[in-house]
Amino acid sequence: MLGSAIFPGSTCVRISVMPLLNPLSLPMTDARDCLEAHQVLIYFIAIGAAALCAFAWPSATRLEQLVNPALAFMLFVTFLQVPMAALRQAFTRMQFVGALLCANFIAVPLVVAGLIQFLPEDPLIRLGVAMVLLAPCIDYVVTFSHLGRADAKLLLASTPLLLIVQMVLLPVYLELLQIDASGELMRLGPFVDALIWLIAAPLALAALLQKWASRSPAINRMVVRLGLAPVPATAVVLFIVVAAVMPQMGQAMDAAMQVIPVYVAFAVVAPMLGWWIARGFGLEVAASRSVAFSAATRNSLVVLPLALAVPGAAPLLPAVIVTQTMVELVSELIYIRLFPKIGRTNDAR
To answer: What topology does the record note for this protein and the membrane (predicted)?
Structure first.
């Protein structure tokens, strides 16, 4: 997912719209950089197109069946960008791993425990907010952190660990928060399926393809071309998710509006906690920014299939989760401009 450094004002940002529409017309590295630099625009175009599709085709809810296959491919091409050697190296950075786990699985759950007290008593609303806020992002957070001058390669190498830990701990945290104390809302099956089909299978396939690429020029060329896929794959997932959920959004609009203040509060508090924890662990500025990005960015796309498996989830639960995605994409635009400045301020001190 990573290209050369891309920041506002870079040459890639000045590339015309036509190469963006047809990135394969550019050299491979330039095409990847162009997609990453324009990813927010691409995501919002996908969301807008999905909304139009849902309006014109009310049966778009049938696209729900494509969410898991699209997610599996998105995670596969994301994991494919993680050299297995870099993955092993990431585990040697124990300070970074410790800060990352502390921020996402100790500090953030405490924040969520406080924020859900401001939500209505409806268990589905609380469940949706808790599910999405307890799960750290493992896909587009890497590129956003890159744009925000963080150590994105280190964060990318940690994505499999983050995904595995959140799948294991999410049911535990929901029980501790007494959101699912009766066990009637959540089932173990979807979590086991997610571990197998969204984590183990894509990761194993990515590792296998990397091994083949080192021996076969043809496979290596395919792996290089798949380096263009993370942003388009994420856009496709967003399109499918929004198109499938949007026809039902009207019935859950009140709930969506009620959760927005909580998501905004989280977007403010979480990155600050991530930054402070990282600095407390003695991490350098770039790595600290990575922890801040990770603490602030949530895994709504991967959590949604788990939510859809909840009996009686639609339309409320998907609407609550998709609303977080909308708030988050706007927040990321602020982060990539603000975080580098905060880092310089702290360095000066």
So the answer is: Multi-pass membrane protein
**pLDDT in the model for residue 86:** 65
List the structure tokens of 309: 């498996």
Q: What is the 3-state secondary structure (H, E, C) of 171-192?
A: HHHHHHCCCCCCCCCCCHHHHH
Please give the structure tokens belonging to residue 114: 């406080």
- Are 295 and 136 in contact, with CB atoms under 8 Å apart? yes
Per-residue pLDDT tens digits for 311-338: 777 788 888 999 999 999 999 999 999 9
CATH code of 256's domain: 1.20.1530.20
Q: Does residue 6 fall inside a structural domain?
A: no
Q: Which residues are within 8 A (CB) of 245 and not within 5 positions of it... i.e. 6 or more apart?
A: 54, 61, 315, 318, 319, 322
Q: Is residue 5 part of a domain?
A: no
pTM score: 0.83
Is 170 within the bounds of a domain?
yes
DSSP 36: H
Q: The domain containing residue 196 runs over which residues?
A: 12-348
d(CA 181, CA 190): 18
Helix (H, G, I), strand (E, B) or coil at 349: coil
Binned at pLDDT 50, 70 and 90, residue 8 comes out as very low
Domain tally for the chain? 1
pLDDT tens-digit map of 131-185:
999 999 988 898 889 889 999 888 888 888 898 899 889 988 988 887 754 455 6
**Cβ proximity of 19 and 31 under 8 Å:** yes
Identify the three-state secondary structure at position 298. Answer: strand
Q: Using CA atoms, how far apart are residues 34 and 47, in angstroms rounded to an integer?
A: 19
Task: Name the residue with tokens 């040459």.
Answer: 11
